[in-house]
Write a structure and sequence with these properties.
The protein is of the alpha/beta class. The protein is 42% helix and 14% strand. The protein has helices at residues 10-25, 41-50, 67-85, 97-108, 128-139, 148-156, 170-179, 206-209, 212-223, 261-270, 279-288, 302-306, 317-329, 344-353; strands at residues 3-7, 32-34, 58-59, 89-93, 113-116, 142-145, 164-166, 199-202, 229-232, 253-256, 273-276, 292-295, 310-313. The protein binds uridine-diphosphate-N-acetylglucosamine. Uridine-diphosphate-N-acetylglucosamine (UD1) binds at residues 9-11, 37-40, 43-44, 64, 95-97, 128-129, 204, 234-236, 278.
Amino acid sequence: MRVIIVVGARPNFIKVGPLVPALEAAGIACPIVHTGQHYDAAMSDVFFRDLELPKPLWFLGVGSGTHAVQTGTAMMKLEELLQAERPDALMVVGDVNSTLAGALAAVKVQVPVVHLEAGLRSRDMSMPEEVNRLVTDQLSGMLLTPVPEAGENLIAEGIASERIHFVGNIMAESVLRNLTRVADRVPCQEYGLNSGGYVLATVHRPENTGHPERLEAIISALEASPLPVLFPVHPRTRPLLAATGLREAGSRIRLMDPLGYSNVLALQRDAAAIVTDSGGIQEEACMLHTPCVTVRRNTERGITVDVGANRLVSADAEAIEDALSEALTSDRTWELPERWDMEVAHRVGNALLGGVLPLSGV
Ligand code: UD1
């Protein structure tokens, strides 16, 4: 069996880390195609080095652009590749533009689509990721879900239950497998900080970066943090920070360039709390027993809130400050969600060996 895996952006790279060795062990060949959605050293290369991922066999060089340009360019290049390679299936992961491009290109040339991390829903169609999730799931022959609720969402949308496999959260397996690798690393010391002595912050979602008053509210809340704040900055957020009035000198906030996976993992492990709008970090914080504050209108990772690891707040300075104080004093003993363990990639391999059902009429 040969399954081509599409990756394009940071969260995808992390998810394929545990997948490739497990699928190969199950006798499934799984060459990687990198669309090039994220292309620079800090956003891409460092992840492949850090996670010791096999080099992608194909690099499509799609780069930045509007959503349609990015998705359309990736589709054109993936269609050509799929027609030449005719794999048994194409696996797409997560919810980025490369995920949708892969699903659309494959279904049209009748290559079955497998979606890993299927069924998550924020119910917010202004998020490009929600559009990507919904469409990708409708086009997929096999849907691999991270939480039981994702399967319920899919059933409610008319997806046949025999296509849905509850494999657990692949992000959780990445965290567990990489924790030992970073056991000796304490990257906060490079910034003169100790374990438990800082807050980690990340902000990159358009719902925050596209609204100056929201970004300002987040920065103002971070400035009021009782602990210093380490803030690795996404390339989109960086040019917007000056307009918030943030002056690094004398500030609570230390800005950093984007970091590789190992450093982000160790910084999350050692943080007293995390403030973020990332999907993946909500899950990683949950796995690492670090209390999280998510600054968004909604989250598709509701399970992290349900278990007590995460609190969801709007981009309002006072609300963020309150949630952060609560997070800093909260107890860290929540239970991990079901199947957020080291067997996820193994379950994916078993599901694939069972065969991907064709879509009706195909
Ligand atoms: C994408 C995903 C988002 C994910 C995030 C992780 C979609 C719709 N969104 O958002 O779900 O959480 O990745 O980072 O796919 N840029 C660089 N270098 C790079 C890549 C991007 O400088 O290597 C800059 C470009 O100016 C680009 C901007 O970052 O326009 C945004 O990149 P893009 O791939 O469009 O989306 P993300 O915001 O990163």
